[in-house]
C-alpha cells in the first residue's frame, strides 16, 4: 500500500493498531524515564548508586519519579507533525518533512518560552501542554538544528558530522505509518533525521529504526522486521556501519545469556548505529518488557536514548497491555501521550471522515490546523 492510498480498516484491526500506537509512544516514554536518571553514569557508577544489579525501577529525576527527557518530547511532536501533514494534504500541500520540521520548531519554542500562554491558535493543542515546556537537557545538535527556520535536507543537512542517537530516538512514529510502503517510511525518517543529525550513519539508523517499528506495527516478528530493514538499507551510500551493527545485534542473541557487558559492547561509543543495535538486542533477548528495558539502560552509554529505543520496539511489538502498569501510573505526561496516540490512530484509520471533500470536523481542525 502506498502513501497515497487509504487503508480499509476493520474494527479488530483498528483496535490492534491503536494498542500498538499506544504501546509505541508509552514504551518510548517509559524507557526514556527509566534511563534518564542514570543517563550520564558509567555502569560501575550505576551499580554503586543502585546496587549490584543496577537500576531496576523508576528513579528520581527532575524532582520526581517517571519524568521524561527531550526524547519523549520530540517523539510527541513527530506525531503531531505527521497528523498535521495528513490534514494539510487536503489543501494540495503534501510534503511531510516540512510539516514534521514545523512541528519540531514548535518544540524548539517550548525550550525558549516560559509557557504556552502566548502560543498562536495555529500551533494546535500539543504546543499548549504546559508540562512540555520543561527543559530536559536537549543536546546542542537539537538546539542548533531547530534554532532557525532553515530546514536541513539530505543535500544540505544540519550538523553533518553528528553521530548521536537523538534523531533515531524521535523516529518511532514514522514506523506507525502502516499504510505506507516500508521504503517510503525509510526515506521519510532519513529526511527528517537530516534536520539535526546530518551524518549518514545517524540518518540511516533513524530510517532503519522506523522500518523496524513499521514491521512490528504491521504484526511482523522483530527478527523479520530487522531483516526487512537490512534489505532496504543495502546499496544506500554509507549503509555498511548501520547494517553491520544490526547484524552484530542478531548474532549476539546466539551468544548465551544477555549481560550488561554485551549491551555495552553493542552500544559502543553511544553513536546512533550502536544504540540501534543495543536496543534491537535488548528487545530480542528480554524476558518481558521490564527486563528488556532494564537491560538496555544499565550500561555506560546514553541510557535514556537506549531505553527510549528499546521501549518503542517492545511497545510496537506487544501493544500497550504488555507495559508495566506500576510504571505507567507514575509516567509523566501519560494523559497527553494517550490522547495523542488515540488522535494519531483516529487520523490514520478515519481521516477522511474528519476532514476532506465530504466535510470537516471544526474541532479536529482546531486541534490540528492546516496552517
Keywords summarizing the entry:
18 helices, two-stranded antiparallel ribbon, 2 strands, 371 residues, 58% helix, ADP-ribosylglycohydrolase fold, mainly alpha, globular, single chain
Short description:
With 371 residues, the protein is mainly α.
Helix and strand layout, with pairings?
Blueprint: H1 11-35, H2 43-50, E1 60-61, E2 64-65, H3 70-88, H4 96-110, H5 140-145, H6 166-169, H7 172-175, H8 182-193, H9 200-217, H10 222-233, H11 240-252, H12 260-267, H13 272-285, H14 289-297, H15 303-318, H16 325-330, H17 334-354, H18 362-367
Antiparallel strand pairs: 1-2
Structural notes for this entry:
The structure is a single chain. With 371 residues, the protein is mainly alpha-helical. It has one domain (39-355, 363-367): ADP-ribosylglycohydrolase fold (Orthogonal Bundle). Helix content is 58%, strand content 1%. It has 18 helices and 2 strands. The protein has helices spanning 11-35, 43-50, 70-88, 96-110, 140-145, 166-169, 172-175, 182-193, 200-217, 222-233, 240-252, 260-267, 272-285, 289-297, 303-318, 325-330, 334-354, 362-367; strands at 60-61, 64-65. A two-stranded antiparallel ribbon has the order 1-2. Helix 1 (11-35) runs antiparallel to helix 15 (303-318), helix 1 runs antiparallel to helix 17 and helix 11 packs parallel to helix 13. The longest helix has 25 residues, at 11-35. The radius of gyration is 19 Å and the shape is globular. The model is unreliable at 1-6 (pLDDT under 50).
Amino acid at each position: 500500500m502506498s502513501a497515497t492510498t487509504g487503508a480499509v480498516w476493520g474494527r479488530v484491526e483498528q483496535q490492534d493498531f491503536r494498542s500498538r500506537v499506544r504501546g509505541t509512544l508509552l514504551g518510548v516514554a517509559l524507557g526514556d524515564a527509566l534511563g534518564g536518571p542514570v543517563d550520564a553514569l558509567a555502569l560501575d557508577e550505576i551499580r554503586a548508586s543502585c546496587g549490584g544489579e543496577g537500576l531496576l525501577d523508576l528513579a528520581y529525576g527532575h524532582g520526581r519519579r517517571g519524568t521524561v527527557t527531550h526524547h519523549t518530547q520530540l517523539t510527541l511532536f513527530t506525531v503531531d507533525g505527521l497528523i498535521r501533514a495528513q490534514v494539510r494534504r487536503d489543501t494540495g500541500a503534501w510534503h511531510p518533512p516540512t510539516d514534521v520540521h514545523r512541528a519540531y520548531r514548535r518544540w524548539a519554542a517550548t525550550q525558549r518560552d516560559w509557557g504556552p500562554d502566548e502560543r498562536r491558535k495555529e500551533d494546535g493543542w500539543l504546543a499548549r501542554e504546559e508540562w512540555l515546556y520543561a527543559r530536559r537537557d536537549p543536546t546542542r545538535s537539537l538546539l542548533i538544528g531547530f534554532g532557525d527556520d532553515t530546514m536541513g535536507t539530505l543535500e544540505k543537512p544540519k550538523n553533518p558530522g553528528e553521530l548521536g542517537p537523538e534523531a533515531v530516538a524521535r523516529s518511532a512514529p514514522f514506523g506507525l505509518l502502516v499504510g505506507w510502503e516500508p521504503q517510503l517510511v525509510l526515506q521519510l525518517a532519513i529526511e527528517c533525521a537530516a534536520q539535526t543529525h546530518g551524518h549518514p550513519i545517524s540518518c540511516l539508523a533513524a530510517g532503519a529504526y522506523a522500518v523496524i517499528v513499521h514491521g512490528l506495527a504491521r504484526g511482523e516478528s522483530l527478527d523479520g522486521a530487522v531483516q526487512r530493514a537490512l534489505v532496504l538499507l543495502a546499496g544506500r551510500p554509507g549503509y555498511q556501519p548501520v547494517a553491520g551493527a544490526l547484524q552484530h545485534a542478531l548474532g549476539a542473541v546466539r551468544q548465551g545469556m544477555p549481560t550488561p557487558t554485551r549491551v555495552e559492547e553493542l552500544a559502543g561509543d553511544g553513536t546512533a548505529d550502536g544504540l540501534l543495535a543495543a536496543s534491537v538486542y535488548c528487545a530480542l533477548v528480554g524476558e518481558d518488557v521490564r527486563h528488556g528495558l532494564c537491560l538496555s539502560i544499565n550500561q555506560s552509554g546514553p541510557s535514556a536514548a537506549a531505553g527510549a529505543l528499546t521501549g518503542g520496539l517492545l511497545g510496537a511489538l506487544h501493544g500497550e497491555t504488555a507495559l508495566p502498569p506500576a510504571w505507567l501510573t507514575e509516567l509523566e505526561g501519560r494523559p497527553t501521550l494517550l490522547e495523542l496516540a488515540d488522535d494519531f490512530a483516529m487520523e490514520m484509520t478515519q481521516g477522511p471522515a474528519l476532514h476532506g471533500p465530504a466535510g470537516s470536523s471544526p474541532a479536529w481542525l482546531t486541534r490540528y490546523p492546516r496552517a
